[in-house]
Structures are given as structure tokens and as C-alpha cells.
Amino acid sequence: MPTDEAVTASRPRRKPTIDWGAAAIQAAPLVLAMGAALLIGAVMLALLGANSFAAYASMLTGVFGNMSGFTQSLVKATPLLLVGMGICIAFRASVINIGAEGQIILGALMATWFSLQFRAWPGWLLLPATLLMGFLAGAAWGFVPGFLKARLGVNEILSTVMMNAIAMQLMNLLLRGPLMDPAGVTAGTFLHQSERLPEQVWLPRLIPQTLLHAGAILAVILAVAVYIFLWRTTIGYRIRAVGLNPDASRYAGIRVPFYQALSLTLAGGFAGLAGVCEVIGVQRRLLEGITSGYGFSGIVAALFGGLHPIGLIPASWLFGSLLVGADKMQRAVQVPSALVDTLQGLIVLFVVGSALLSRRWAAQRQARQAATVQAKTAEVNA
Amino acid sequence: MTDIYSTAGLIGIIVGVLTSAIRLATPYLYAAIGEAFAQTSGVLNLGVDGIMLVSGFAAFYVALQTGNLWLGLLAAIAVGLLMGLLMSFISVTLKAEQGISGIGLYIFGLGLSSLLFKVMVGTVKTVVGFPPVKIPLLGDIPLVGPIFFQQSLLVYGAFLSVPAATWVINQTTLGLKIRAVGQNAAAADSLGVDVNRIRYFSVCLGAMLAGIAGASLSISLLNLFQENMTAGMGFIAVALVYFGGWRPLGIMWGALLFSTVNAFQLWMQVLGVKISSDVAVMLPYLLTIAALVFAVNRARQPAALNVPFERGTS
Fold first, then answer.
1. How far apart are CA B4 and CA B2, in angstroms?
2. CATH number of the domain located at residue range(s) B18-123+148-298 in this protein
3. Interchain contact, B108 vs A346, CB within 8 Å
4. pLDDT one-digit tens code per residue, A319-330
5. What are the boundaries of each domain within chain B?
6. C-alpha distance from B286 to closest chain A C-alpha (Å)
7. What is the pTM of this model?
8. How close does chain A come to B292, measured CA to CA in Å?
């Protein structure tokens, strides 16, 4: 974790200079992790009897070879960005949120129920209200493990995993009962999906004939807002302080449990928004499997983006592309897209595993720089 | 349908619930006892669920192809060992943040088991799993016999692992070393204990037991493989370690509590009790959160849990 950033934030502003060496040390492990994962993926493809080259080529052309693949990658990047910024906030307070899957579901459920319930409302009122309610529903789902951690010391990783399973069952229950499409009931198909949402709550499509919706822009704006929140506000500063050094924060009078619970609640809220955007932006109704595993991919993207909301923007697009590429590859060379899930797991392992390397490199570089300064001072003195 | 209102029918149901409770405790027990080893040595392995999935698939596939259940079990253990080595390398050698490396291992295992299943098997197939073995004399006792002594070998093994683990952790030099590196790695190191080696051993032993847990699902309890068939069982097993206060016996009671709730829930569905199956399926997860809340033995938590060891830093 970049320990020097807290210091930079409190220092008076000066002309920003980019430290290319430090940036390279931060980025090198990511490139290595991605490279190693793709290499292992190539070996696995070969073992599965597919042509690794053709498979990867089909991914690339699938995403970048045409407009539809490209817009799809942005459509998938949107929930990753929303989920990921929540993961970043939680992580900065050293809270690990594995509960995004459940929080997405709660956001989606709330958006579906709310917009159908108040379908008479005009769009200018219904749309923001739906977004807000979805955020609150996700936040509530994040608050529970946050509260349990703060008050009772319950391990948040385990409780969030359990909250995911409970949310999943809750959605199954509602889609088989109260939220089931009445049209499906009369037609006798009993599909496990909701009614189509009222038209005024749909997010506008940015490019006609594609699924790319205004949620993508909203996500980017929010990422910048989260950056400002974390680095330019007192609450954000405290959240980061809690993560950097809980003991020092406690001595400084920061209520550590409160900020941990708050960060998990906010994380839930952003994941909830991702769920809202999926139902009002992409599907326009609630379907089973609405999360598409975004809750887990969002963690991968957040780690890859250096747990920084701005770094997360390109990272979520990268993983959005990877997910789209996986679908295209499945169709082109008949290798299940689960390959990409496997690779995502490896990328997580490699990224956290290589953190030690970048820490060592950074330390060595600092020692070298200190030695140079020392030598120069000695020269001047002599 | 069984007549639940006659005495004989009621006894039959109780025996049925308890028999399946003992059976269903098996995967929880193996996985949680294994996790107890890893955590006692100071490593939180959250990848148990992923290991169970890949091992469960390996056992199923080998049993399907060769018809030999023991080879299947061996394959599961081998997969567990490999994934344990990967976890230890990342968490012990590279000193990564353990919570995340475990989640990485889980995502990897979930993806890999689905991938291999889709490519190598494709459709739902079943194998003939480990048959029940009736223990002479004990198995003939009315009521108690069918519940405890007419189970499959893997079930007996799970319950035998409890005293075995208690003995290893509390009575052997190895156990002392495992506890020492989990409490105070620097002190253990200064006394000449190879911290990393003990942690590698504990994580790998735990992962092999998680492998058996996966196999017990796919070739002993359910006798089939499905994508994500564990449904979070590995995470519940990790929670059971907290609940059991890091003691094998406590873990066993926790596992039995879970499996009894599960068995009861399944029987309610069979008997057509008016309770939505979705609500019933939620029960184990709600119970896990409750168990974590009431896991009061936090004082027993290994002091160095989650803390990578680096010489000269503490």
C-alpha cells in the first residue's frame, strides 16, 4: 500500500511532478501478473486442445474488431467501475468487501421494486429516486457486516460471503413470487424474471443500437468524486488513516470501528448502484444471474487499479474487455468462458504476491537515492 | 409419505435426520479441521472453497474414468496439496495479504472446476460412491447403529480426524511448533523453529484435508459434480474454526450443529412442511453469521494469525 500518499495529501500543494521511476515500480508487477496469467491461460488452452493463438486473437478481434464488441466492453466496465470504487474505499480502511455480489442484488431488487411501485411518477423524479434507493439498499447490505465488524469484531470477509448467499436466495424467492412478471404468469411460462420496468426510468442509451447507457458516464463522474472524497475531505482522510495505521488513528482520536463500518456501508452503496444500472440501463428488467460475477471481477479490477479510483477507470475497462473477449472466444474456439474466471483468480494471486517485489524495489531505490544524496552532500562539504 | 403422527413414524424421522446429519457433517469436518491447522500456524486460508471445488471435480472425474474410488480420493488429495503449495507460496514466501490471496485462490478454483467440468464432462453424470460400511456388533444396536455405525468410510474418517488433530496439536512436538509459529513467529524463530517450513506444512495439510472434503461431496455424499457445488461450504468451514475456538472438538460440535440444521431443512422439504425452500436454504448462512457473532472464544485466536513473518521486523 502506498504509505507516502498520506503525507503528500497534507503537504502544501506544489507543482505536481511525475516520479516515473516510482510509477514504473508500481506498474511492473501488474504487467508481470497479467503476462503470467495470460501465459498460463495459453498453456491451459493448449492442454484443452485449442489453438492458444487463435483463442487470444478471437478475444482481441472480438473486442476491438468492431463497434459492438467495443461498446460491450464499456457496458461491462461500468458495473466493475462502480463495484471497484466501493472496494477501494473499503480497502483504504483495511476492510475487505467480498459482499459486492449481494450488494448488487439488493440494489437491483430495490430498483425493480421501487420503479414498478411508483411507475406513475415522472422520469425526472423516478430516475434519481430509483438510483438513490438502490444505493441505500446496497449500503444497508454493506452496513450489516460493517456493523458486526465494528461492534463485535466479526470477520467481514466471512460475513460478506454469507450475505451474498442470503441475497441470492432472497432474489430467487422474490423472482418466484411477488416480483415475477405477471405476463409470464398469465402466459404460463413462469419465467424467473420481473416485469419490464417503466420506460421513464430507463437510462438513455449513448449510442443507438448498442447497450451502452448513461450509467457509464455516471460511473466515471463518481470515480472522480470518490477520489476527491478520499483525498480531499476530512472523512476520506480519516478512512485512509484508519487503513494505514489503526493504532495511530486511535491515538489521534479517530473512531476506527465507525470509519470501518462507514467504508463498508459506502462500498455496499456503490455496488448497489451497479445493480441499479444493470436493471435500468442494460436489461430493463430483473433477471436471475443479474450480477454476472461482477462482484468478484470488481475486486480484481480494484486490485489491478492500485486500489485508486482513478487507476480503476482503465483497470475496469481492461477487465470489461477481458470478459467480453471471453464470450467471443467461447463462440470462436469453443473454450468455455470460465477460462477467464480462472485467469482472474490467478491475476489476484499474482498481483498480491508481487506486492512484496515492488516493496523491495521501492526500498532499494530509496536506499540508492539516499546514497546519492549522501555522496553529493559529502562532496559539497569537502 | 411417512406418517409423522405415529410414534414409530416420528422415531423413523428422527433417526433419518440424525443419520443424514452425521453424513452431512463430513465435508465441514475435514475442511474445518484442515483450516484449524493452517490458522493455528498463523495463516488464514480463505481459499478452502476453491480447493474443495477443484478436488471434488478431480475425485469425481478420476472415479468416473477408472471406476476406482481410492484413486479418485488420491487425486483429490494431490490437487489439495498443489493448491496448498500455491497458497503457501503466495502467503508465506511472498508474504501477501492473506485475505485477498485466499479470495484469489477461491476465484481460481471456482473458475477452474467449472472450466474442467464443462470441457471434460459436460453433462450431469453420477458415480457409485463409497458404500456404507456396517461396523460389526455396534452397527446392530437399534437406533444408534444406523445413525453412527452404518456410514461410509469417509464419514468415519472425518470423525476420527477430530481426536487425531487434537492429539497432533496438543501432544506432539510438531503441534507445539505449529502453535508457536502462530502465536509468536519471531520467538519461535529465535528458538530455531523454521517458521516458513511449519507454515507451509500446516497450510498444505489443511489443503489436503480440504481436498478430502471436496471428494467426500463428489464421491461419497452426492456422487456427482456440479458447478459451484459447494455453495460456500468452504467459507462456512472457515467460520466454524472461529466458532470452535480453534479446537478440533469445538469445531466438531459446530459442524454437527450445521449439518443437523441442514438435515432438518432437507427433511422438512421432503415432508412437505409449508416453508419456502428458499427461506430454508438461507438458514445455514444466517446461522453462520450468528455463529460468528457468538464465537466468544476470540481470546484463543492465534496471535500471529494473518501476520506474515519476516526476520528482524518484530
1. 6
2. 1.10.3470
3. yes
4. 999 999 998 988
5. 18-123+148-298
6. 7
7. 0.90
8. 6
